[in-house]
Amino acid sequence: MIIHPLLGLLQCVSRAYDTLKKTKERVDDQLAKNIASSLFQNSASLTNAYQNLTRSILQNATDALNKVRQANDAALKANNAHPLFAAIQARLVTAQSDLASRIEQLTATGDTSEIKALEDMDLVKVGDHPAYETRFGLYQGAVRMAEAKWINRDRLIGFKGDALDENLNQVVSSTKAAASKYPENLRSQVVSTCNYLLDRSAGVARDAYMAAYMAEARKSLGGGEAFPLIANVTAKSLNNLADLRNANNSLKLISDDLTSPAMKGPASGDWNAFTNRMLHMAGIAKAILGGAGDGPMMCTISLCKLEDPPNLKDDWRNKGIWRNAKLTSEGDTGKLTETASLEDGVLGQMPVNQSFDLLLFKLNESTDKQTYKGELWGPLWLLCKYKGLPAKNDVTTWTADWPIESALSTGAIRLKFKFDRPFSGWDTWPRD
After folding, report:
1. Is pLDDT larger for residue 400 or for residue 102?
2. Domain match, 181 and 317 both
3. Mind listing the pLDDT tens digit for each residue in 256-267?
4. Has residue 73 been placed in a domain?
5. Domains identified in the chain, total number
6. d(Cα 383, Cα 233) in Å, to the nearest integer?
């Protein structure tokens, strides 16, 4: 399983998010209670609530003073020009002026600007919700992206990454776009936070998708990751062309997926290795099977001519120990070919899925012989086992040396393989 390198950091972010979520829930509850109060009057405005509070204080104090004034006016009327009530009347005028001054001072302090700043930051509507709720929604979407609950294993192979595009690429783009439209007072902080969370969550989610995709791709191939699609002759081999065609059908879908725009982007080393492996396997399968209507790749096998000066690998025939060779394969018993020829000697032709045997004779078929047995996918098996090489600027022609197994001589049987269409280079043949 792929472990994202920042998963530990994202877990720390997740814990911080949980704390933020609980705080947000408490704010929601308190705000709901406040809005229902007479002070807020169904509005989430702190400024209006503060104005309502000061008006209420002024009104209550004024009402109290009025009651005292009314009582004092009645006493003055009943006790004409009594000094006590005249003094109270004067004090009431002073008290009214002092009250108005104190209320004016209260509303003129820095509290109102701080309240307004807090309201602008958290309570004004951004879209259809209070600002703090809009910010939380953006952060919540970014954090939850890492959960990747949208991955559906039934919509991986053959869908060209549509789920990845819909649930990751597009969500990242839309979230970043929404953050960029946040009001200017906190825009830079919101954009920066969203980008930080999105980059980390998207990395984890993308790796989760890639891990699921790789598992499903290999599952869809069944036993298709085998020779000749991979360069390992000691491992399992595909049994026939039908097995190769089945693997090729899956590889076509996988190749289309891997080269789709949605599947491109940041990836781990495991994903890059997987991509290269699948695309090269698809290339091998296409080379062997050809296009629609083509048959399997054909190969003409020849014994390389003798060289001047002598090639040390030709010791077995320079000494005249094995004078003739013959290649046999399914439906072809072959014919004798002289080993001492100064021209390449054609041994036979066959589809690459067949096996073949190479026989060396001391003189003719009635004399001593030595048999070299090939495996399924004979030409490709021999090239892979003995690390054949393509001709310069011609990947339809390859050579390989089959080591001589004889106490009488040394060297190798130098063979030339001519394919009817290009075959991928050795350096791109996937290996285990």
Report:
1. 400
2. no
3. 999 999 888 777
4. yes
5. 2
6. 10
Distance CA 380, CA 351 (A): 10
Please check the confidence at residue 349 and state whether its pLDDT lies above 80: yes
Question: Would 420 be classed as within a structural domain?
Answer: yes
At 331 the pLDDT is 86
pLDDT tens, position by position, 29-46: 666 666 566 665 555 555
- 415 exposed, middle or buried (CB, 10 Å; 0-12, 13-18, 19+)? buried
Q: Tokens at residue 168, please?
A: 């990751």
Which single residue is written with the structure tokens 């020009």? Answer: 81
Element spanning 66, H or E: helix 46-78
pTM of the complete model beyond 0.85: no
- How many angstroms separate the CA atoms of 276 and 289, rounded? 20
Domain boundary among 170, 194, 218: 194
Quote the tokens at residue 402: 């089959």
Task: Measure the CA angle with vertex 261, ends 256 and 263; round to 5°.
Answer: 75
**Torsion on CA atoms 415, 419, 425, 429, rounded to nearest 10:** -90
Enter the tokens of residue 25.
């829930």
| Contact criterion met (CB below 8 Å) for 339 and 313 | no
